[in-house]
Structures are given as C-alpha cells and as structure tokens.
Specification:
The radius of gyration is 18 Å and the shape is globular. The strands form 2 sheets. The chain has a 6-stranded mixed sheet with strand order 3-2-1-11-10-9. The protein has a 5-stranded parallel sheet with strand order 6-5-4-7-8, with helices on both faces. The protein has 258 residues and is α/β, with parallel strands linked by helices. Strand 10 and strand 11 form a beta hairpin. Helix 2 crosses helix 3. The chain is built from 9 helices and 11 strands.
Length: 258
C-alpha cells in the first residue's frame, strides 16, 4: 500500500484513543503530523494528541488546514532557533511563499525590521503583511541593498542561500528550511537547516494570534479529494492569490496540501 501524503490538517475528531484526556469526539482541531508520518490527505487522518490544538475559532477548516506547516516553521526558525529580538533586522528570502508569508508576519509582530525578497507582483502583498522593505529579486540582487542584518530566514536555498551569508552582521544568525540544504557539504548550512516539528503549545499560541487578527492565513484554492493527485502534481492551474491549495473532504473536514 502506498503512503498517504500530506502533513497538515483541520477537522472534527471522529474517535479518540483510551489515553487521550485533553480532547473529545466532536472537537474541532487543527495540526500537523510529524515530517516522517504524513497521512493527512485522506477521509480520516490518524494523529497524536500532542500534534493538534483547537482550531482557530475565526477560521474555516479550509483556512486552518493551511496554517500549521508554514506558521510552525516560521515560529521555530525565527523564535526558537534564531531567537529574534525586537529591534533586530531580519531578511526573509521568499516572503510571499507559503512559509515566508508567516515569517514576515511573525518577525513584524515581534518588532523586528523586516526586509524580504519577492517577485514584482508580490511587493504590495508582503508590505501589507508587515515588510518594511521588499526587494524584487528579478531586477535587483539583494546583497547590493541589504547589509548587516541580524537574522536571515531562508526558504529558497541554492544560490540565494549562498549569497545570504554576506549580508549577516558578525554574530548574525542564519536559518534555512530549503530542502536542498539538508545534504549540503557546507557545515554552516547543515547547522542552519532544520525540519519543522508539531508542537502543541505553539499551535495554541498561533491560533490565538490568528483569532486576534495578528496573523492572517491565506488559501489560494480549494479542491475536492478526488482531485488531490492533480493538486500534488501541479496540474491545478494557478488561480492567483497567495497561500496553499487545500484539499477538502465533505463539508466540514479539510486537509492542507503544500
């Protein structure tokens, strides 16, 4: 049997194990499975209680399903690993992407000065999210305009990551989630790379920030489960907008696809 893809999800609890104390059948929850577990793109998703939290009240299941991976990755990169402080300067590489858009928001909310690289059509979007400066990477090399930043949060990898080291101030911190960084030969890159983990207390705090309007979630499109393979293969045409394509199951249960 093939693996069931997908990490993040939002839905209603249909059944619980005997040792689960914090949740009940019928609770509306959201969360994500461990990077090595998958299993979200299905009628029923099995997860651990510590991987979920109550769904943000102000979000639909579709919107909530789009949140965990990007928001947790940004939280763990900026706050846990880089220990970003108010007043520091951060460069977010790829600020309009599914992870980057949360990194921009979280860094701004933390009181940091935020610069981000995006394409031309995304400049206004990231500025609405809280970016102080947006650099069009198609027309300008960011290292010509950016100097002495405290933190680089990289979602792009490759040449972009290679060029990012030069803009850090002495003692600055690099964090990357780009997949090509996992097997890098450069020890600096290995040290900067991490894989997101499901952490319940962070999901709870993220839900609070979403309900308070301090964070915003974005869904690019929704598709039914029978079109999941098309969504994963990229066959769903880009309908514009930002965020994730979300796979929906029936009326009230939805699963994120990134």
């Amino acid at each position: 049997m093939g693996a069931v893809p997908g990490h993040e999800f939002s839905g209603v609890i249909a059944a619980i194990g005997k040792d689960v104390e914090d949740f009940e059948v019928g609770d509306e929850v959201y969360g994500m499975n461990d990077w090595f577990e998958d299993g979200a793109t299905a009628e029923f998703c099995i997860t651990l209680s510590q991987n979920i939290a109550r769904k943000p009240e102000t979000l639909s299941h579709e919107a909530a399903a789009s949140v965990p991976l990007g928001a947790l990755t940004s939280w763990q990169g900026l706050i846990d690993r880089a220990k970003l402080e108010p007043g520091e300067r951060v460069l977010v590489q790829g600020g309009a992407g599914a992870v980057g858009l949360y990194a921009v928001q979280l860094a701004h909310n933390r009181g940091a000065g935020v610069t981000t690289t995006v394409s031309t059509q995304d400049i206004d979007f990231v500025k609405r999210l809280g970016a102080d400066e947006a650099i069009d990477y198609k027309v300008s090399r960011f290292e010509k305009d950016v100097r002495e930043v405290d933190v680089v949060f990289d979602t792009v990898g490759g040449d972009t990551l290679d060029r990012s080291w030069a803009v850090l101030k002495p003692g600055g911190r690099m964090v990357t989630v780009a997949s090509d960084s996992a097997g890098a030969a450069d020890q600096r890159v290995k040290n900067a790379f991490f894989i997101v983990e499901p952490i319940q207390k962070q999901l709870i705090e993220i839900a609070k920030q979403l309900d308070a309007g301090h964070l915003r979630a974005f869904v690019k499109a929704t598709v039914p489960l029978n079109q999941a393979s098309a969504a994963y293969s990229g066959a769903i045409r880009d309908k514009g907008g930002y965020g994730k394509i979300v796979i929906t199951i029936e009326a009230e249960i939805s699963h994120g696809n990134h």
